[in-house]
């Protein structure tokens, strides 16, 4: 890696930039901008922040990602899950809407950015791998359910609190009789419209004579249309006087210059949430980026992505924003709309900047229920309960990890949920590798192949036992092999040779080496010789430096067949007679 | 396991018990009893308990182990490391020598016994496997150094305190000028005598005309001789009046009947230490037991051992003792002296009981420095610093685990040391498996073998890439394969086939399956087909139930050679021309 790669990824594409690329990028930027304006407002609200903060968080991060990012089409900004994590983290420390809340958001983005940057520079991107797919799936589904439950109260115009998902649902049911009818009509109407718009708008526009490309682009504007329509209706009916809560005054202007709070004890409090936000954001961003890059035979570099996301979050922190990452929906739209280079991101940033400068007065009459409706529709597409069925069928350990992550997140919140999921999946993996599959194998007659004696009709001898260990040997499983060999020796008085077929052993650590030495010593004491066969190159290299091979009572054979032919020719002869 | 095994191991040997076995067992019991008396007194002192407690802890546990244990020669009782852990645990909660201290010791033995019993009944013996050899080595060496440093102040007759090893050593150096000359003469004299006795007594006795067997037995009595000699000298000189600290009055009689403190909050405080004591004791005991059993083609059953050690510790708790386990030195002596069955343990228990009943007045004049000297000589044989060199040479990860365990134990104590060692070795293992060795392989000309392209002169084709992954695929490493394949596709425009050689893949979890699906999808998007070869039976069984194989763009081949012959025959043809 790294050889011949330019210092900044943009050097790759900036040289060949021409008019055709410019036009593709501009078209994509317009479409993404239209999509991002309502999303940014909504995710800021989800994070407990004023709407303009969502716009701010979509400007500097987009620009910085364009400079440092290795994906050509990834669009960075506020996303649902990270906004929820932000709200959960800061909600416990400050009142939503207060100035302090905003400072905490900026500080969280700063810490997250610094961590991502550091992880990138130290090449620690592999840490994200410890979030398994089942844990991520369970976590995202649970987060989406938490978000949807939280937004429903805004859509229904009621007050309902709850410390976890189940309490929230219970609170919604209890408060349902107090639903504010007009608010609910706006909110649920928008939800229905957006669900319909997903499938219905494009065919309708095509039937009206528009080209499919244009129809597709316009369909992306459905949330904007919903916001505009409900804002107009609210203005016309002055519904805010009838209890419909509106966005209200949104300050107009450039993003402010902000600094994080320099407070060490606060940093300690925010450190774990910031780390979790960083890792979740990174995982989400990289998987989107990789999927899109592969479609054009491009490549993204995970450690580069860490640096780019780190810079983006630092940018968000310096411009009054909150934690951001690469978003799935917006990146796919950017890709589909034909974006060729990160310049599309720069143009999108300019578009959002213009919105922040000029458009905010138009947001005054937007009902909060409409914003919540766009969130609910967006996050419900993240709910994936099929993972429960598929992991149940494929692997009980993975199923347990999904259930634990999902259950703990819903019952206790995003942080405990993630931690429980990661811890459980690691423990289950260790448990699995600590009980390796050890097969006693015998010769398949007429071949040089060896198979499990329990599954196949194979030839063996009471004088020789062949064991195949289907796992690398390390401290957690080395003693299992000891037990197995001890049992063999105790059960078979005629035993003279034990041969370990090592074809699936990728590593032998110091504990396993001592176990092998102990096995060899005990076998010698019992008058049995220990042999190895099919030891891999790298494993053999390490064993060569040790006393184990010098003291080994038996030999190391290149193939298992060779070992048997030498040590127990009766097996081979029997077999060839059949 | 378990089929045809009797309910109690003793049913195996009690039936065939005859006069010859009885005589072997009796001889062994006499030798072990002589060895155990000073050891028991010394380890009780090390644990901060009165000397008779050491005798009590060597009676009931020996009897119970004889009934439940699966080893025929293991001798159970107080051992150095567990005594140190007991002192560390209780020392923070009560004054050594107080009645409360004794109650805490009994409670700790009770909790440890209950945990061992429970682990045995739930078949959780595998948990002990997570203590790797390097961690155990580092821990035992550090414990031995801690013990020796702690005993040196008794040997020198000075007062020196320290919260960790380094402070203890510093304290010893500072207080050295206040050394009590007579005490030091006794203590250091005993140390020198015991070191000499190890090698010098047996040849001397042989030269005096004794048979080697008898000489060997008498050599084992060296510590008793040392104790008797210094006690006699102290009595003759009435040295206790000159500041030599003696054992003093030791109550005479049967072990008392005791009960643990029924105090839930105390149990919570003692839970973690009790668990660590249980696991360390179990690991020490099982490894001794296995080594000795193998020499006679016998076998010990780890889950049985948990039950037996659990019963032994419960027995210690009910008879005024403290945590016990199977000891190395005493078991080896028992074995060498010819013990045939656990009846030898029963006879030893009777011997110790007689000592508790009759011998304690004779202990009055024994100098404490003599007991400390026997401890120092015993534990110094546990110090093994060669493990540092051998792990450095064999595996840096194991070396780090030793250093961390050793360092943290010396600097912060036994509990943090063990926990740090286990945590670090697990993390290092996870780190290692998260970065699997992935080799690109090519055909060795004239064979059907495939080898790493970087190491061997092999045949490849720009149209096909063969990858061999040397690790099971799971969540922590699945993305590494994704990255590698993405890089290949981005670098090689001519690429049409990727073949994964799966011979070393023992498992594919749900995350890795999703990664493989993502890889396949991305390869399809890029016009490349993904194939598998040499997939193991159990892995194939699980894959068959999934959509992955149905959607796979390529095929699954039995052998890698077959795959290449079909997909890139030019490689095979080139090769055969050579």
Structural class of chain A: mainly alpha
Largest interface between protein chains, with number of residues from each side: A-B, 78 and 79 residues
Evaluate the radius of gyration of chain A: 31 Å
Mean pLDDT of chain A: 88
Q: Which geometry of chain A do the CA atoms define?
A: elongated
Q: In terms of per-residue confidence, which ranges of chain A show pLDDT below 50 for 5 or more consecutive residues?
A: none
Number of helices of chain A: 25
Question: How much helicity do the residues of chain A have?
Answer: 55-70%
- Order of adjacent strands in the largest pleated sheet of chain A: 4-3-5-6-7-8
Characterize the largest beta sheet of chain A: strand count, sense, and whether it forms a barrel. 6 strands, mixed
Oligomer: homodimer
Residue share in β-strands of chain A: 5-15%
Count of distinct strands of chain A = 8
* Distance N to C terminus of chain A: 55 Å
Tell me what you see in this structure.
Two copies of one chain form a homodimer. With 578 residues, chain A is mostly helical. In chain A, 64% of the residues lie in helices and 5% in strands. The first copy, chain A, has helices spanning 10-14, 19-46, 51-56, 60-68, 80-91, 99-121, 133-156, 165-175, 181-207, 212-220, 222-237, 264-295, 302-318, 328-336, 343-359, 368-380, 386-394, 396-412, 414-434, 475-491, 510-525, 537-544, 547-551, 560-567, 569-577; strands at 76-77, 325-326, 438-443, 450-452, 464-469, 497-501, 529-533, 556-557. In chain A, the strands form two sheets. A six-stranded mixed β-sheet of chain A has the order 4-3-5-6-7-8. In chain A, strands 1-2 form a two-stranded antiparallel sheet. In chain A, strand 3 and strand 4 (450-452) form a beta hairpin. The interface between A and B is large, with 78 and 79 residues.
């Amino acid at each position: 890696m790294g050889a011949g790669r330019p210092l900044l990824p943009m050097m790759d594409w900036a040289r060949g930039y021409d008019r055709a690329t410019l036009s593709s990028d501009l078209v994509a930027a317009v479409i993404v901008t239209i999509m991002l304006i309502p999303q940014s407002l909504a995710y800021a609200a989800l994070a407990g922040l004023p709407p303009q903060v969502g716009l701010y968080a979509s400007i500097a991060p987009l620009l910085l990602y364009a400079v440092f990012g290795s994906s050509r089409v990834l669009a960075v900004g506020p996303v649902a899950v990270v906004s929820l994590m932000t709200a959960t983290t800061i909600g416990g420390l400050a009142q939503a809407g207060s100035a302090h809340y905003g400072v905490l958001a900026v500080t969280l983005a700063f810490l997250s950015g610094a961590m991502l940057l550091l992880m990138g520079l130290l090449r620690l991107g592999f840490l994200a791998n410890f979030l398994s797919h089942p844990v991520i799936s369970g976590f995202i589904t649970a987060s989406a359910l938490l978000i949807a439950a939280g937004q429903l109260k805004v859509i229904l115009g009621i007050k309902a609190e709850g410390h976890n998902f189940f309490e929230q649902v219970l609170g919604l049911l209890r408060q349902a009789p107090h639903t504010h009818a007009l608010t609910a009509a706006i909110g649920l109407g928008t939800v229905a419209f957006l669900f319909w718009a997903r499938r219905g708008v494009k065919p309708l526009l095509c039937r009206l004579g528009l080209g499919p490309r244009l129809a597709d682009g316009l369909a992306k504007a459905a949330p904007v249309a919903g916001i505009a329509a409900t804002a107009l209706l609210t203005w016309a009916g002055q519904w805010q006087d009838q209890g419909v809560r509106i966005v209200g005054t949104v300050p107009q202007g450039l993003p402010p210059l902000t600094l994080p709070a320099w407070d060490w004890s606060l940093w300690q409090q925010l450190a774990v949430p910031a780390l979790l936000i960083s890792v979740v954001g990174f995982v989400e961003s990289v998987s989107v980026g990789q999927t899109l890059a592969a479609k054009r035979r491009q490549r993204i570099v995970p450690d580069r992505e860490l640096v780019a996301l780190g810079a983006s979050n630092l940018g968000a922190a310096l411009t009054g924003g909150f934690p951001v990452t690469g978003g799935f929906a917006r990146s796919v739209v950017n890709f589909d709309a034909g974006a060729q280079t990160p310049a599309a991101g720069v143009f999108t940033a300019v578009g959002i900047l213009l919105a922040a400068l000029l458009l905010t007065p138009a947001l005054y009459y937007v009902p909060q229920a409409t914003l919540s409706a766009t969130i609910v529709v967006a996050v419900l597409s993240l709910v994936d309960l099929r993972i429960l069925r598929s992991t149940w069928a494929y692997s009980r350990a993975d199923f347990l990890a999904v259930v634990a992550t999902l259950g703990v997140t819903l019952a206790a919140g995003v942080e405990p949920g993630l931690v429980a999921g990661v811890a459980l999946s690691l423990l289950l993996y260790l448990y699995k590798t600590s009980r390796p599959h050890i097969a006693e194998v015998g010769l398949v007659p007429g071949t040089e192949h060896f198979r499990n004696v329990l599954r196949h009709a194979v030839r063996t001898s009471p004088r020789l036992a062949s064991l195949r260990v289907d796992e690398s040997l390390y401290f957690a499983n080395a003693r299992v092999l000891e037990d197995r060999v001890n049992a063999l020796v105790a059960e078979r008085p005629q035993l003279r040779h034990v041969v370990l077929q090592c074809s699936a052993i990728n590593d032998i650590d110091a504990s396993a080496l001592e176990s092998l030495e102990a096995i060899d010593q005990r076998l010698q004491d019992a008058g049995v010789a220990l042999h190895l066969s099919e030891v891999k190159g790298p494993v053999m290299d390490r064993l060569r430096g040790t006393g184990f091979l010098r003291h080994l009572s038996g030999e190391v054979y290149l193939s298992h067949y060779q070992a048997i032919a030498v040590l127990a020719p009766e097996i081979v002869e029997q077999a060839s007679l059949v």
